[in-house]
Amino acid sequence: MPGSGEPQKIMVVDDEPHIVEVIRLYLEHAGYVPLLHFRGGEVLDRVKTETPDLVLLDVMLPDVSGFELCSQIRKLPGAEGATPIIFLTAKGESIDKLRGFNLGVDDYIVKPFDPNEMVARIKAVLRRAGKQGAAPPVPAEHASKPLEVGNLSIDLDQYKVCLSGSRVDLTPKEIELLHFLAASPGRVFTREDLLGYVWNFDFSGGTRTVDAHVKNLRKKLGSHEAWTIQTLWGIGYSFEVRGT
Q1: What is the CA radius of gyration of the chain?
Q2: Which are the contacts of 40, defined by CB distance < 8 A and separation ≥ 6?
């Protein structure tokens, strides 16, 4: 079960009824509430009104592409724009995965898929997003301390980032990238390094994914006197702590 409170809502957007039915059965068995859609036209409004905990989104829809829907969701303000998204698609080529990650997708499941693996991936993404209520608390002796630099606090156990005490809505991958860079201040990482470490994805043509996530981090976090994400042109990025 996802948690002891309200059941978590998983929005499913796919135009194949038999696949949707299988997904529904497995989600309900796992204790989730599925919100089913066979077209993409009303999804954006439903995300605003229903505030799902995660969106399972097919790329190939009859009226709008999953890529476009993902982009629209990511443009929503506040927590809605950071809603975890998993792409569900028959396309498994690297370029399609990169396009999805570039838009801020949290995971990618290729059809045909094992429904049990799908549920496991959903749980993992929810956990990374700090939405998995069933996860037991981490014992104090095993919990890692939040990484703090100036007014910035990054808690990777809770997937929470705060600026001057106020939480910032970031996607799980944005949090992972920020934490990875900030954990090694001054060290320069190439884009290929970051793809491998943060995305576990080895593909030399995918560096735009990293650039897009860094751009989003700068937009959401703003500029600060104590630290900055530095671009080293032609090389990559580093997290620089400025002198006090």
Answers
A1: 18
A2: 13, 61, 63, 64, 65, 66, 68, 69
DSSP state for residue 144 in the 8-state scheme? P
Return the pLDDT at 142: 41
The enclosing H or E element of 168 equals strand 166-168
- CA dist 67 and 167 (Å) reads 27
- Distance, in Å, from the CA atom of 51 to the CA atom of 124, rounded to the nearest integer, reads 19
Minimum mean pLDDT among 31-45, 72-86, 137-151, 175-189: which range? 137-151
Please give the helix or strand (H or E) that residue 89 lies within, else none: strand 85-89
149: CB partners within 8 A, 6+ apart: 182, 185, 226, 227, 239, 241
- d(CA 159, CA 168) in angstroms, rounded, equals 11
User: How many CA atoms does the CB half-sphere of 195 hold within 13 Å?
Assistant: 21
Q: Please choose, from the candidates 176, 174, 179, 149, the residue with its C-alpha nearest in 3D space to the C-alpha of residue 164.
A: 149
In eight-state DSSP terms, residue 29 is: H
pTM greater than 0.70: no
Neighbouring C-alpha atoms within 13 Å toward the C-beta of 232: 12
- If you search the block for the tokens 């995965």, which residue do you land on? 97
Question: Using CA atoms, how far apart are residues 47 and 52, in angstroms rounded to an integer?
Answer: 6
Token digits for 120? 């496991």
